[in-house]
Amino acid sequence: MRDRSRSDRNKRRCRSPSASAVKWADLLDPLLVSVLDRLPSLRDRFAVASVCRTWRAVSRPSLSSATGRCPPLLFRPFVGPFHRRSRRCHQISPRRCDLLCPAAPFAPSRTMVSSGTVNLFLLGSSCGHLIFCEGRRAILADIFTGDELRSPDLPSDGWRFHYGALTGSLSSPGSNLLLSANGNLLRWGIGDSKWEECSFTPLDVHMKRIVAFKGHIFALDSAERLHVLQFSPYFSIKQMAVQWAGGSISSGMNIGFTQQLVECGGELMLVQVVPAGQIMHLKFEVYRLDLSGQPTWVKVDSLGDWALFIEESGRCPASCACPGRWGGRSNCIYYAGHGRGRWHVFSLDNTAIDTTDPESPLYFENQCISMWPSPIWVYPSMLY
C-alpha cells in the first residue's frame, strides 16, 4: 500500500502545471540568439539549429556570422597505423573521415560524405564543400550532408590537377569553381554548361591557393608569386609585383611546407616557415599584404587576439577571432598535418620547431609522404 500511494503522489506531481514540460518552441527569439552567440563550438550551434524549423530560421543569421568567430572544424581522414620507416610515396585510402572541433577535441563526429567519394583525389575545400576530381569531372561534396554536385565534362582528358577552389557559395550569383593544372586554370561558372580555360607561363607552375578578398580574387602560385584573377570582360590572370619589406624572404629549407595565403582580421596574410637560427630548427612567420602604395609583404609581429589554422597541404587555412572564448590561444598557429594526430599549437613568439624530433609535425622524414591524405580545416556550407 505504501509503494502504491507513493507512486500515485508522483503521478499527481508530474501532472501538476508547475511540473509540466517546458515549451522550448515558445522561447523568445532574442533570448535564443543570445544563447547562440555564447556557444563556442560550431557543433553546439548546429545542434540548436536542428531542433525545429523555427529555431533553424532564427539560428541562420547567427550561424552566418560564426565564420571567424568560432574555430573551424578539422576534416581528418582516418588511415590506421603508419610505419615511419616506409619511404614509399603512394595514396592511402582512408577508412573513414572524422570532424574534430578545437573547442571539443575529444568528441569527434562523422562526415556524411560517402566512402567512395572520400577516396577520390581531393583538390581542396571551399564554402563547406570538398572538391574532388574523378575522370573528366569535378565533384563538389557537402561536408555535412554529403550532397554532391557534378560538373560538366572537362575540355579534354589527361589533366593533372593540383588544386581546386570555389569563389563563393553555390547559391551566390556569379560563383565559380576553379581547377588548377600546370600552366592552366579552368573555370566553371556554377550552372553553366561548359568550362573556360586560361593559360599562363611558365608551364610547370600551378595555382596552389585562391582567396576572395575585398572584391578581388587573389591566387598564389607554386613559384610563390601573387596574381589577381578577373572573369569580366574575359577570363584573365595578372601577376602582381609584390615587394618584401626589408628584402627578399626565403624559407632556406625544402621541408614540404608551402607558403599559405589566408584572410585574418580584414588583412590578407601569408604564412611561411623559415630557419630559426639553429640547425634543423624552424619557425612560423606571418606577413600582411600592404596595398597602400606599392604592394608589399610586411612582417606581422603579433596576431593580437586572433589565431590561424593551417595544414600541411596549404589548401584551406582559416582564422578565428577571440579564441579564448572557446578555450583556445591567441597569437598562435594551429597546425594539422599528415592525418595521424589532431593538431599542434605554435606561438608566434619566436617558438623554434625541432624538425629532428619524431613527434614534431614538421619532422623531416615525414616529408617523403607526398601523397598522404592531409587533414584540412573546414567551415560548414550553412555559414556561407
Description:
With 384 residues, the protein is mainly β. Strands 16, 17, 18, 19, 20 and 25 form a 6-stranded mixed beta sheet that branches. Helix 2 packs across helix 4. It comes from Musa troglodytarum (fe'i banana). Pfam families: Beta-prop_KIB1-4.
Brief summary:
InterPro entries: F-box-like_dom_sf, KIB1-4_b-propeller. The protein contains 5 helices and 26 strands.
Distance between the termini: 62 Å
- Largest sheet geometry: 6 strands, mixed
Radius of gyration: 24 Å
Mean pLDDT: 80
Secondary structural class: mainly beta
What labels would you give this structure?
26 strands, KIB1-4_b-propeller, KIB1-4 beta-propeller domain-containing protein, four-stranded antiparallel β-sheet, six-stranded mixed β-sheet, globular, 5 helices, F-box-like_dom_sf, 384 residues, mainly beta, 36% strand
Topology:
Elements (H helix, E strand, L loop, with lengths): L1 H14 L13 H9 L4 H8 L3 H12 L8 E6 L17 E6 L2 E7 L4 H4 L2 E6 L2 E6 L2 E6 L5 E3 L10 E6 L9 E6 L2 E6 L6 E4 L7 E7 L2 E6 L4 E5 L5 E4 L3 E2 L15 E5 L2 E9 L5 E10 L5 E5 L5 E6 L6 E4 L10 E5 L7 E4 L5 E2 L21 E3 L6
Parallel strand pairs: 16-20, 21-23
Antiparallel strand pairs: 1-2, 1-26, 2-3, 4-5, 5-6, 6-7, 8-9, 9-10, 10-11, 12-13, 13-14, 14-15, 17-18, 18-19, 19-20, 19-25, 21-22, 23-24
Helix pairs in contact: 2-4, 3-4
Organism: Musa troglodytarum (fe'i banana)
InterPro entries: F-box-like_dom_sf, KIB1-4_b-propeller
Protein name: KIB1-4 beta-propeller domain-containing protein
